[in-house]
Amino acid sequence: MLRIAGAVSIVVSFGLIVWGIVTLYDYNMRFGRMWVTPAVKPYEDPLPVMDTRTVPVDGGENRYRLAAPADLQSPFGLGQAEVLKAGQQEYGYYCIQCHGRNYDGLGTVGQSFAPIPSDLRSDKVQSMPEGQLFKEISYGLPGGRQPALASTIAVDERWRIIGFIKSLGVRK
Questions:
Q1: How big is the chain by its Cα radius of gyration, in Å?
Q2: Environment class of residue 116 by beta-carbon count within 10 Å: exposed (0-12), middle (13-18) or buried (19+)?
Q3: Distance separating alpha carbons of residues 170 and 172, to the nearest angstrom
Q4: Residue 135 domain boundaries
Q5: Within a domain: residue 49?
Q6: Distance of alpha carbon 95 from alpha carbon 100, whole angstroms
Q7: Is the CB of residue 165 less than 8 Å from the CB of residue 86?
Q8: How many domains does the chain have?
Q9: Tens-digit pLDDT profile for residues 54-112
């Protein structure tokens, strides 16, 4: 009986030591375990306030889909600093994986495509009207080279990304 109690005592002691090490790791390292990430505990965060423009009340996405590219114009002025800054940030969210940090189509994901995604600083892209860019980003290209992102990226974000892309200029 004494041997069993001793063995149980050793196992419990070992378990407490391991638990202490894991807890020390979780609370004192730059990155923790999965159970302390917001993705696992979303109920602890307050719900975000929904943008009032989320649900269209006057035509919504369909008016862009049906419009001719020449009729589409950005609601933002080209070259505005705050629009370009927001567009650059949104490019980082949605586009950088395929088009890359240098806008050349050699992003982490884009390198695996054949042919690679377009160079956003090419003469072809930079000379394209903004309405055409909007349609290609929103509804994709035939053959699947550019996926349709209308359901992923909000309308204003698409326009800001286009403003940022146009600000890059032609690669020399």
A1: 25
A2: middle
A3: 6
A4: 60-168
A5: no
A6: 8
A7: no
A8: 2
A9: 765 666 788 888 889 989 888 887 778 899 999 999 999 999 999 999 999 888 888 88
